[in-house]
Amino acid sequence: MNTFRKQYSKYHALFEEALKRFCADMRHEPPVLTESMCYSLLSGGKRVRPVLFFGALDLFGVDPSAETGLAIALECIHTYSLIHDDLPAMDNDDFRRGNPSSHKVFGEANAILAGDALLSEAMCLLLREAGRGERHRSAACCLAEAAGADGMIAGQSADLLYTGKAGGEKELQFIYSRKTGKLIAAPIVMAAHLGGGDVAAAEAFGQALGFLFQLTDDLLDERGESAKMGKTVGKDREEDKLTCVKVYGMERAELQVRQTAEHCRQRLAAFGGNEFLSSFIDLVQNRDN
Question: Which terminus of the chain is more solvent-facing, meaning fewer CB atoms within 10 Å of its CB: N or C?
Fold first, then answer.
């Protein structure tokens, strides 16, 4: 695990350096737009998706330092989704990554625009990266589709639709596979495109890992600590969200975590296995934030 932590820190540092340069070069007018975009981008976090991307790139024999543009696009999309998730019309959360949410600092209207701008910035980055060749075009299309109406947005829409309403395992799996699964799978699939790997196997592993991530997220909302999570806990039950705890109950949800972690390991083995990604499964399964 110490080797895993060192490698995670290495990927994290590579990404943070690239992101800081990206934000330092940002010059949008009026200044509040740049400030609000950078506020959320630079607010810390585990950088799960860029780190996954770099780890998968190494697996497929691609230099991570050559692909920081795609990694930044990935984080721009994730960050925009967090800004919008926190809005009063969505999850209505005052904190994100241990800091006041964007709308608490800049107001709701500016937060909406910051999210819009980050998504647009991501699309610009993807268009530039797509110009590098067919493999980069495929990777860029993968991320754009994962973020869109058949991906993350579909999951968010279903999440809202079933809040306060009856729903079962089928509906839960739809939400998990789109809202979380698509943007967890995307960096792994992108890396497979860039490295000439098995795209279908990468997608299967990524979706399983996304399912595990959302399972543990739901459980942490029930029993986690706000200080460690960096956001308010207990909101899912309060708002009657469709979660694994609501569908399965706590005991069966914990069983689902164990079974899904094993499923992740099987899916990872399908394209050769990797020590870093194997340890990443353990990290997600046992995380407390």
Answer: N
